[in-house]
Structures are given as structure tokens and as C-alpha cells.
Specification:
Length: 343
């Protein structure tokens, strides 16, 4: 077993989290990860026709009906995110109003927007007083990590540019970012994210000051993930070069380079992106949303296929239990081998 500040903070067996992967459902995946001793994280689901707050309630009910283990959820705090104001207001209230959910939902990860959105919610402040809930925010740069610390987060998810899906304009690798942030904020609990899929990766993250890793692409290629079989099938043969940074609804995203990706070149700057968004018509917006729905149903050519460079180190689709067991075993071997080098 590997015990860290994060496994102790959350009372979990293994320092492994599933990364949130909205707008898609990750209920079965979160359940499998929590059951296997990691911490499963529910995604902010907002594909067309869904109400994100209602989906969070349904997802949390699903979790407490199927496991007694702890879990977490993600809220995208981008102002572009449909329903964000309702979510930061209502989700903490919903957690508080169900004793089982209050006991098991112990982690809220905010991302793709301000780290202040959730702490400013009156119900979240109340929830903090009556539960063990912890608030982490995604930090893709040192100056954004400072904002997290100013918002009094309990910890940060340090996500580098090699990660799949949501990205920032900063484009710093996880390797450098972890060292940068660890140097400035050595005592803030950290989860490393972006590029992790193996035990050697976990061992490296722990050496760089993180207390756990979060994996997205690795868990997409699992038997329990709700992603379409065609989506999963892209992972084992994929290489890092098959992915690139492109244009997404909440900022830059790392996509598998298919027809859709090639039609969505990455914006050069935030200003360029805001300008481009201003010119979007309602029809354009609906088409964008449709691209997520399409891929969820299996159109991996014309839909947005979010994946990270880590697909280059994933060779097969596995059971979540086996993935977690293998990562822990490999990490233990790597840590022992490293220790044996000390003479
Ligand atoms: C399909 C997909 C959807 C994602 N959606 C979200 C999201 O809704 N919120 C978020 O904070 N990050 C999102 N991400 C980013 C992941 O949480 C995480 O940072 C990334 O998967 C890490 O890189 P990896 O894929 O190499 O593990 C998404 C990633 C993927 C692959």
C-alpha cells in the first residue's frame, strides 16, 4: 500500500482519482474507481437536453445506491457553462439534504473557470461546517495556483498540457508545472494530472510532491467506462502525436486529430478565442454541442474526441480494478528500485 497526504485526507486505499470527463457521463466509471479503492469523480454532464444540476443529483444517488465508498464531483466554473450559477448554489444544498450523500461525497473539484465561484456559495460554506467535503481546483500555471490559494482551496489538481480534454492557454508540461508549483506551494495538497497511465508515472508524481494522480484517458480505455466502444478503440493503437491542442467550448482542448479536430484549429490567445466566440451564431453553438453528442454515440470522425498524449502509453482496454492494481504494483516496484540506488 502507498499512503500519502491525499489518501489520508480522503480515507482512500490508493492515491488514484478518476479525472472528470464532462460533458460525458462517468457514473459507472466513478463507481468502479471508488470500489477499487481510488476516488471516483462524477463529471459535469451537459450534453444537449440535460440539466447539469439534475444530472449531478442523479449521479450522486446512483453512487450511494451502489457503494458505501467515498466519491467526488466536478463543477465547471466557466461562465460559458450552462447552469453553473444554479450548480454552485444548489449542488451543496443537495449534498447536505441527503445524509448518505453528505457522508460519501467528500470532494468537489472546480475547473475551467474561477476558483472563487464555489467558495462564494452560501450553501457551500454551510456544507463545509457539517461535512468532511474538500474543495480542490485545477491549476494549469503558477499564477493560477496562486489564485487557488487565495480562494483558500483545500488542494489543487496540477494539470499539464499533455492531458486530454480541457486545457489552458499556458501550455506547460505536467513535469515542469508540478516542480514549479511545488516550489512555491510545498504544503498545499496536490493531485498530479495529465499524462499519467502507469505506476512509473505515479511514482514520479509522488517524487514531485503530489499525493495522488488523476487519470482520464487511461480510464476511458476501461471495461467500465461509458464511452462508446469506437472511442475506446482509438486509445490502444494511439500515439501522443495523434492528439493536438484545438478549439473547444470552454477554452483550448486536447483532441484526437480527426476530421472535427482539423476543422477546429487552436486559438493563438485568449483574446482571439473571445473574439471568435463573439461571432458564433446560435446555429454554430448548437452544432458544437452536437459534436459531443455525436461522438458519445460513436461518430469518432465528425465528433470531438477528447484524449491526452498518455494514449501513447496505454496498450489495452482493461478492467478498472486491474488498472488500479497494476498501477499500484508498478509504482511500488519503481519506488523500491529508486530507493535501492541510495548507497
Ligand atoms: C473526454 C474528456 C473529457 C474531459 N472533460 C473534463 C471536464 O468536464 N472537466 C475537467 O475539469 N476536465 C475535463 N477533462 C480533463 C481531465 O479531467 C484530465 O485533466 C485529463 O484527462 C488528464 O489527462 P489524461 O487524459 O492524460 O489522463 C476531460 C478529459 C477528457 C479526456
Amino acid at each position: 500500500m502507498i499512503e500519502t497526504n491525499i489518501t489520508k485526507m480522503f480515507g482512500i486505499k490508493h492515491p488514484i482519482f478518476s479525472a472528470p470527463m464532462g460533458p460525458f457521463f462517468t457514473r459507472e466509471l466513478a463507481l468502479a474507481v471508488s470500489e477499487a479503492g481510488g476516488l471516483g469523480v462524477l463529471s459535469n454532464v451537459n450534453i444537449a437536453g440535460t440539466n447539469p444540476t439534475k444530472e449531478h443529483l442523479e449521479s450522486m444517488k446512483f453512487m450511494v445506491e451502489h457503494t458505501d465508498k467515498p466519491f467526488g464531483l466536478n463543477i465547471l466554473t466557466s461562465r460559458n457553462n450552462r447552469g453553473v450559477k444554479e450548480m454552485v448554489r444548489k449542488v451543496p444544498k443537495l449534498i447536505m439534504s441527503d445524509p448518505k450523500i453528505k457522508e460519501q461525497c467528500i470532494y468537489i473539484l472546480t475547473s475551467a473557470g474561477s476558483s472563487r465561484f464555489l467558495p462564494s456559495s452560501k450553501y457551500f460554506q454551510e456544507l463545509r461546517k457539517v461535512s468532511e467535503i474538500k474543495h480542490f481546483h485545477v491549476a494549469p500555471a503558477v499564477w493560477l495556483a496562486q489564485k487557488c490559494v487565495d480562494s483558500k482551496v483545500d488542494g489543487m489538481v496540477i494539470t499539464g498540457t499533455e492531458g486530454g480534454g480541457h486545457q489552458s492557454f499556458e501550455k506547460v508540461t505536467t513535469l515542469v508545472l508540478l516542480q514549479q508549483i511545488n516550489k512555491v506551494f510545498p504544503d498545499v495538497p496536490k493531485i498530479a494530472c495529465g499524462g499519467f497511465a502507469t505506476g512509473e508515472g505515479l511514482a514520479a508524481a509522488l517524487s514531485l510532491g503530489a499525493g495522488a494522480i488523476a487519470m482520464g484517458s487511461r480510464f476511458i480505455a476501461s471495461k467500465q467506462s461509458e464511452f462508446h466502444e469506437k472511442y475506446k478503440a482509438l486509445v490502444p493503437p494511439g500515439s501522443p502525436q495523434d492528439t493536438g491542442l484545438h478549439w473547444g467550448a470552454f477554452g483550448p482542448i486536447r483532441l484526437f486529430r480527426n476530421k472535427y479536430a482539423l476543422e477546429h484549429p487552436a486559438p493563438g490567445s485568449k483574446e482571439e478565442m473571445v473574439e471568435r466566440e463573439k461571432n458564433l451564431t446560435m446555429d454554430d453553438m448548437l452544432k458544437e454541442l452536437d459534436a459531443y453528442e455525436r461522438v458519445y454515440k460513436g461518430d469518432t470522425e465528425n465528433g470531438a474526441v477528447l484524449l491526452g498524449q498518455s494514449i501513447g502509453i496505454i496498450d489495452s482496454i482493461e478492467d478498472v480494478n486491474d488498472i488500479i492494481e497494476m498501477v499500484i504494483k508498478q509504482a511500488e516496484v519503481a519506488i523500491k528500485n529508486n530507493y535501492s540506488m541510495i548507497k
